[in-house]
Amino acid sequence: MVKMKLFNDHFQNYKRYQLPKAQLVIADIPYNIANDAYASSREWYKNGEIKNGESDKANSNFFNTDVDFRVAEFMHFCSHMLVKEPKGTGKAPAMIVFCAFQQLEMVIEYGKKYGFNHYIPLVFIKPTSAQVLKVNMKIVGATEYALVLYRDKLPKFNNGGRMIKNWFRWDIDSSYPKIAPTQKPIPVLRHLIEIFTDPGDVVIDPVAGSGSTLRAAIELNRDAYGFEIDKKMYQKAAKKMLKHAEVPLF
Description:
- The chain has 250 residues and is α/β, with parallel strands linked by helices.
- It contains five helices and eight strands; from the N terminus they run ββαβαβββαβαβα.
- It has two domains: 4-32 and 69-242, Vaccinia Virus protein VP39 (Rossmann fold, 3-Layer(aba) Sandwich); 35-68, no CATH class.
- The chain has helices at residues 71-81, 104-113, 186-196, 212-219, 231-242; strands at 4-7, 24-28, 94-99, 118-125, 143-150, 167-169, 202-205, 223-227.
- Strand 7, helix 4 and strand 8 (223-227) form a beta-alpha-beta unit.
- It is globular and about 65 Å long.
- The protein starts with a strand and ends in an 8-residue tail after the last helix.
């Protein structure tokens, strides 16, 4: 039976839970855009209209925890919680870190400090852009970025005979609940999990947010564990994203 658990706790406290080690860690780290989170979105204004004045989202963060994320502690967690480098080939673990374009170099350098000597950059192509207020000012962003980090041996790779390119479509399935503004689409997460893990492997998300990574993992028969420190976000994830999943929270 597939196992799943979302903890309302900080990933730094992982030792108290005696989690199994993971084949894959997926994390969407804070982009450190502070109170400019909605700066390019119509949500900055009431009902999306400038004439109505600013909404309560103006000059606000996406999450209260965005300003206190420590990359070194995150990398330490990942280096400890991934399975050891195997003797053979085709079984090595990996981590996938979603981040802002400006953070790529920083994530690469911190990864090297904790033994992740290699990386593969990924680009995700969106059909639309949230930067609607910028369309008459500049080229707007319609991509997301991530890094596949691994130690020395190439990570487990399931391609089914297909060429896997370093760009992916940002496929969205609206049948899943939208809980967080930065929530990653479950079809995208499923695709990544299928590539780098096998059924029965463990997937961990140290900053689980909406719980979408856990939902994607268990639907693919992978055990899934996550941490979410914000109580309100944890409750939303447990109630809306994970409550109706095929396996119960335990």
